Amino acid sequence: MKIRAAVLEEFGRPLEVQEIDLAEPKAGEVLVRLVACGVCHTDLYAASGADPSGYSPTVLGHEGAGVVEKIGEGVASLAPGDHVVTLFSPQCRECAHCLDSRTNLCLAIREQQNQGYLPDGTTRLSRDGEPIRHFMGTSTFAEYTVMPEIALAKIAPEAPLDHACVFACGLSTGIGAALNTAKVEPGSTCVVFGAGLVGLGAVAGCRLSGAWRIICVDPAEQRLELARGQGAHDTIGGGPDVVEQILEMTGGFGADYTFEATGRVDVMRQAVESARMGWGLATVCGVAGKGETLEVVPRFLITGRRVAGSSFGGVKGRDQVPQFVDRYLAGDIDVDPLISHTLSLDEVNRGFDLMHAQDGIRSVISFDS
Ligand code: CU
Ligand code: ZN
Questions:
Q1: Domains of the chain and any CATH numbers
Q2: Nearest-CA neighbor of 137 among 167, 176, 164, 111?
Q3: What is the pLDDT of residues 245-301, one digit of tens each?
Q4: Which residues line ion ligand 2, judged by CB < 5 Å?
């Protein structure tokens, strides 16, 4: 079928929205009609060419939500008409990692996905017979996509898809970091560094866990306002003396749980140093630049602090994303303020501009507009 999609032709150049071909879903695959898709830093990073493992041409986008149109042979968990959120982090439910409660890093299709192919090593995207590679196994800057069944989370049909799409990436990463990775206990003191979508998700996750006090650190007052909306009790601007500030605010000890959601290694270090002696846990959510290292003075560890990290918040996507969406529907998670702009597919590059300008938290492409 012919579809319109935003193609990354050349690194460092704007995406080009154009008509390309999408083949039928093969065995274990599903055709999804996208209704909405968030524009994320990871898309921008891939488009810039800064990612050494990047490739082109490819159709970017990985925060999709849509409706199942057609299923390939052997697909049992989904049917046409189902509402789904796309998962760049799949869940096969069969591999050693999927069977273990300690991780969400499914091993089923990693290699093919990283190289831009579907699990059978081929693409469904093409133009004039030339293959176009998939991005993150999702390629959701498009009217339709074909994805593996194991990379689609079936959500409640009453959830508006232009809101559900933010659970595909950053928001679930933050919530999951608090719930799955840190396992925040009720009554705790938490500090969240960074109030982008991941950080705001972590604030929400700490609140849902029953944290007694949540401190959010970010230089932008606008984002701190949003953090208060998600449940932060105290907000501070950060800077070089932020660790001292946090120690002062916590009786000299630091916080039970700290979360880093900036991708900056100097902030990761602050997260470790502002965790409490004895049992403080610093959870790293941000993705640092290639080759960067985290400096930790070992004394912080021997005195009982711990460092953890997780990808996609340790969320097993097919199981947990639908639960998060249910909590949103129940009114436990406020998604509205996180969506700052709604764009058409043709305006996708404007989504990147808004991100550069740090304007708002999320731009969402609406395919109906
Ligand atoms: Cu993302
Ligand atoms: Zn698996």
A1: 2-168+335-366 (3.90.180.10), 173-311 (3.40.50.720)
A2: 111
A3: 999 999 999 999 999 999 999 999 999 999 999 999 999 999 998 899 999 999 999
A4: 92, 95, 98, 106, 108
pLDDT digit string (tens) for 87-145? 999 999 999 999 999 999 999 999 999 999 999 999 999 999 999 999 999 999 999 99
Nearest CA to 169 among 30, 64, 96, 70? 64
The rounded distance, in Å, linking the Cα atoms of 42 and 130 is 25
Note the ligand closest to the C-alpha atom of 99: 2
- 154 Cα to the center of ligand 2, angstroms: 17
Residues 181/61, Cβ–Cβ less than 8 Å: no
Q: How far is the CA of 236 from the centre of ligand 1 (A)?
A: 26
What amino acid positions are annotated as catalytic residues?
Answer: 40-42, 62-63, 92, 95, 98, 106, 110, 169, 362
